[in-house]
Amino acid sequence: MEPRVGDLLQHPVLGTLDVLAVDDARLEVRDRGRARRKLARAALEFRLGGERLGKRVLKVKVRTA
């Protein structure tokens, strides 16, 4: 499952995030406080968690080393 612009991510620490941009290495997201963050894609796993407000919701699992 790959994230797309417009998806919502359910991150275990950061909460619900809006996906703003996607490239090969990173995701740019906005958190509930409206701050923009960049997340490394290689450190994350995604699975479909449903739909909310017409958007896909992806559950995020952070990979550990």
Could you characterize what this model shows?
The chain is mostly beta strands and 65 residues long. The chain has one domain (8-62). The protein is 0% helix and 60% strand. The chain contains no helices and six strands. The protein has strands spanning 8-11, 15-22, 26-30, 36-40, 44-52, 55-62. Strands 4-3-2-1-6-5 form a six-stranded mixed β-sheet, with no helix packed on it. A hairpin with a 3-residue loop joins strand 2 and strand 3 (26-30). It is globular. The chain starts with 7 loop residues before the first strand and ends with a strand. The mean pLDDT is 94.
Hey, roughly how much beta strand do the residues contain?
A: over 45%
- Helix fraction by DSSP (H/I, runs of at least 4): under 10%
Biggest sheet overview = 6 strands, mixed
Number of domain units? 1
Distance between the termini: 21 Å
Sheet with most strands: strand arrangement: 4-3-2-1-6-5
Average residue pLDDT:
94
Rg, rounded, reads 11 Å
Count of separate DSSP helical elements: 0
What order do the helices and strands follow?
Answer: EEEEEE
Assign an overall shape: globular
Count every beta strand, where a strand is a DSSP E run of 2 or more residues.
6
SS class: mainly beta
- Spans of at least 5 consecutive residues whose pLDDT stays below 50 are none
